[in-house]
Amino acid sequence: MRARIITRTRTPATPPDVARLAEPARSKTISAARAAGWSGAAFALLSIVALILLYHVPGLGVPDSTYAQFYASNAHGVVIVLGLYVIPFAGIAFLWHMSASRVVTRALDGAGSDIPHWLYLASGTVFVCMTFAGSAAVGAVALLTVFSTAPLPSVDVARALSSTGYGLMFVYGVRAAGMFMIAGTRLARATGLLPRRLAVFNYLVAAFLLVNTTFHPVVLLVFPLWIAMMSVVMLLDARTASTAIPAPPPASVKE
Predict the structure, then answer these.
(1) How far apart are CA 127 and CA 95, in angstroms?
(2) Which of 167, 175, 159 has its CA nearest to residue 209?
(3) H helices present in the chain, as ranges
(4) For 89-132, what is each residue's pLDDT tens digit?
(5) In angstroms, rounded to a whole number, what is the distance separating the alpha carbons of residues 97 and 183?
(6) How confident is the model at residue 240 (pLDDT cuts 50, 70, 90)?
(7) How far apart (Å, rounded) are the C-alpha atoms in residues 218 and 216?
(8) What's the rounded Cα separation, in Å, for the pair 222 and 218?
(9) Per residue in 56-68, pLDDT tens?
(10) pLDDT one-digit tens code per residue, 196-219
(11) Phi/psi at 191 (nearest 5 deg)?
(12) What CA–CA distance (Å, rounded) separates 45 from 39?
């Protein structure tokens, strides 16, 4: 009898699902992964810059005199307005990242559940809306100091606008970001893009955002930094997949 020899070859360090994709689908997925990586990095950078600029707005706990002196001097109005103009570009970059990364996970997930994909889109959209609305409320009075000569609103109005913006960003936006992290981690884990330990870390960070009750600006930096980390994962995966050996064609059936 002839012995049947089974040889084992070392496969490239890429998710198995990428190697099994057809060449056109694989090229599309790799391009989407690159787009997700670079747009995510742009979002993280723009978000951090915008938060630094908007950080000049008086906090909720400062006395009324600080609010009055801040807006009367008009010293930081231009800086805050500049931050308001950076926020939309950060949101645009995030929408690119969300759409491109969904293309990647959708291609690799195959016939997986649709619920994580829809939660991913919904929570990401809510995050962008809350960020836009919250930053606009926080910088509303500063916008008046730069583009209007009308009398400024009272300190109570300025504080109420800041409180509204803080609520939209820290209460609603941060929790939408946490849900986005959970859905994104679930999809990345299901497609083999994340190791188990990193997925557990992501879930812990997402839980922190969901239960956090502080208004410290550092909390708003957690999500951009997480997006930056996931962007690096996407870029590394795209680079590895682009150099992978193409999957062999299916064997023909002999009659």
Answers:
(1) 10
(2) 175
(3) 16-20, 23-54, 64-73, 77-109, 115-138, 140-147, 155-166, 174-190, 196-211, 218-242
(4) 999 999 999 999 988 888 876 556 788 889 999 999 999 999 99
(5) 14
(6) low
(7) 5
(8) 7
(9) 888 888 888 888 8
(10) 899 999 999 999 999 998 888 889
(11) -95, 0
(12) 10
Q: Any idea how long the chain is?
A: 255
- Give the pLDDT score at 4: 34
With 0-12 CB in 10 A as exposed, 13-18 as middle and 19+ as buried, what is 149? exposed
Rg (C-alpha) for the chain, rounded Å, is 23
Mapped onto helix, strand or coil, the DSSP state of residue 5 is coil
At 67, list the tokens: 């609010």
Q: 142: which 2 tokens?
A: 């500063």
Q: Side chain identity at 6, as an amino acid letter?
A: I
Q: How far apart, in Å, are the Cα atoms of 132 and each of 83, 92, 114, 204? A: 11, 11, 28, 26
User: Which of left, alpha, beta for 103 (phi over 0: left; psi -120 to 50: alpha)?
Assistant: alpha
**What does pTM read for this prediction?**
0.81
Asked if residue 98 lies in contact with residue 124, where contact means CB atoms within 8 angstroms, the answer is yes
Count the neighbouring beta carbons within 10 Å of the beta carbon of residue 238. Answer: 22
| Token pair in block for residue 211 | 């239960």
